[in-house]
């Protein structure tokens, strides 16, 4: 059952990071109050919330408290406790449900879901032990990537195997969980589609973003992605298929590879607003965060429109000082910093979005700024 949540009511958010903060800011524009459950006291979302519940994500008493003070509950990341979230759905209004988290927090169930939705994935095998991996790996060949089924992000929890000689490198991954081994896909680009859907089945995609990574961490998202129109159409169609199959409420980021012939292969999904959609705050007529709030609150969605080609650049710990020293030089840059107290190397501290008439000129300006040395 889809409920309408009205301004003045309270949205509960599990997770106090930057995604929760940007959700909260979008919600406050519409007059909502925010409650956040987060283990750390001075979290990015906690800084803008009305109610802060400082406790572990699987703390039953804390989840009950969140249910009591919230009219609707959402979450900002997928590696939360599924059992706790499932119990929460019995006592609170959680329109996204718990199944979406169960499926997407495990690479094995996620891959199976993508295939059932009728979308292409890289060839893969599932192994519970290192011995099972060695017995099956001939089915996908080399090079391949072995990933833990659970946990792991920004390149963590995975190992590239270039040949059989590298096999022992994957042994340690099985200490953490079951693993999946994926055949290497010779892709030309990485892209992502943010698809958003409300409880009435109304569904829209943000413009396709083209992503570049440095050390397995997203560095830049270029919008629109520099791909053929038919590839963009395939990408949006796949994202919509997956959203419909899941009966999605809220947001799903679908990451994909583009092959030489313009076809696509789905890599993975995240059931929340995504780093590659941050550009939408300035560059679209509706941001991924505002659309997410609309979706979970039962509002009608808005068809996204891109105002201008744009580039989003991540600001990691090592970039903060150079960026803040350079603010006066770049009046056209929209600077977002997330309120994190400690700027650690490779920690996501913020992002910059630049709307432009010429992507190549702006890409050159970003490189020449010296803020993001290669």
SSE arrangement:
Elements: E1 10-14, H1 18-29, E2 33-38, E3 51-54, H2 60-69, E4 72-75, H3 82-91, H4 99-104, H5 107-116, E5 124-127, H6 130-136, E6 144-148, E7 158-161, E8 179-183, E9 187-197, E10 203-205, E11 209-214, E12 217-223, H7 229-246, E13 250-259, E14 264-270, H8 280-283, H9 288-296, E15 310-316, H10 320-326, E16 333-337, E17 348-355, H11 359-368
Helix pairs in contact: 1-9, 2-3
Structure, described:
ATP binds at residues 107, 147, 152-158, 182-185, 190, 213, 267-268. GO terms for molecular function: 5-(carboxyamino)imidazole ribonucleotide synthase activity. With 374 residues, the protein is an alpha+beta fold. The protein folds into 3 domains: 10-94, Rossmann fold (3-Layer(aba) Sandwich), CATH 3.40.50; 123-183, ATP-grasp fold, A domain (Dna Ligase, domain 1), CATH 3.30.1490; 187-368, D-amino Acid Aminotransferase, Chain A, domain 1, CATH 3.30.470.20. It is 28% helix and 27% strand. The strands form 3 sheets. Strands 9, 10, 11, 12, 13, 14, 15, 16 and 17 form a 9-stranded antiparallel sheet that branches. Strands 3-2-1-4 form a 4-stranded parallel sheet, sandwiched between helices. It has a 4-stranded antiparallel sheet with strand order 5-8-6-7, covered by helices on one side. Strand 9 (187-197) and strand 10 form a beta hairpin.
